Amino acid sequence: MNFVEELTWRGMLHQMMPGTKELFDKGEMVTAYVGIDPTADSLHIGHLCGVMMLRHLQQAGHRPLALVGGATGMIGDPSGKSQERNLLTEETLRHNVECIKKQLSHFLDFESDAPNAAELVNNYDWMKNFTFLDFAREIGKRITVNYMMAKDSVKRRLNGEAQDGMSFTEFTYQLLQGYDFLHLYKEKNCRLQMGGSDQWGNITTGTELIRRTLGTEAEAFALTCPLITKADGKKFGKTEQGNVWLDRERTSPYQFYQFWLNVGDEEAERYIKIFTSLSQDEINALIEEHRQDPGRRVLQKRLGEEVTCLVHSREDYEMALEATNILFGKATKESLLKLDEQTLLDVFAGVPHYEVSRDQVVGAKAVDLLAETTQCFASKGEMRKLTQGGGVSINKEKLAQFDQTLSEADLLDGKYLIAQQGKKKYFLIIVK
Prior knowledge:
This protein is α/β, with parallel strands linked by helices and 432 residues long.
């Protein structure tokens, strides 16, 4: 399928310059790039639409370039921002770039000797020795201030969105991004720049700079994807805790899987097209199956599986699935023992927590710990009655005797106890 047609049915096409589809109709390999600001040492899922465009591009037989803005990241893009970004040091940027490449390798083939192998480029490499005077002479004279002022990202900032206006540093951002496209056009035969719809102004500055520098016969193209939002119009990828990151240290695979599992039906239909490589027939069949019985959440489960396996691994997905079943399915003590410490804490993050000392647990009677030390139960009488009815569990095993003695062997990871009252009421006891 033509790459543009692929993006179209997936709902990933917002705007493109005339001639872009025809570029792919020629049957030749096209080189295209997406720029990523390395402002953190991890991508978050707000970056995923751009990354998936590169993935679909490579799967269609074309050559993706992932540009990390080591130079432009030192300035900060004003697009969609109401205030200027903090400037990063060269050392921090180098670290961030390395981390981002590692994450991108889950999506793109950088290592093979195929002609369309992906390549990571860093604009700091060609900007670091470019003097201000040379830049002003070679680039600054080709684009007028009038042209730059007409861009929406500039107009919004100058018309009062920002209290302090806009610095010269930020104003020059579109010229720097435009020069990136010119450089990649000349050095890598890159004909297309892609990005989010908020980047249209910066991207078209690049196509204009190429035309004014190299002449009208130099054809360069622009294509953007829509900014992905949730059904309520809010920013995609944000939770109450902040961004959903691709780095497992910032967002655990369990939390990552939960994000996708909990999206609404309308969102799941959109997201499964954008964030997976499943075929159109497969996706249509899943959507139809989901609509027959939305309560089974077929779409959300498959979406969570595909994206968690892609970003993390099949093993991480299986652990996330196991962890999900602990609260909402028939899990066993073995299920708890399979979880790493972080996943265990994530699963039980929303339940009441109690911290106790080791001598209050080891050798103590269950009833004393649960009804007095921690007050998981209102009284010893209540706990006795529930235990007799099989309604009390420790670490997913039913408590045989309410006054059963607890031992070191009962502690998960040497420091946790999961008490359960009935089917759905949990308590996490942390042993210090």
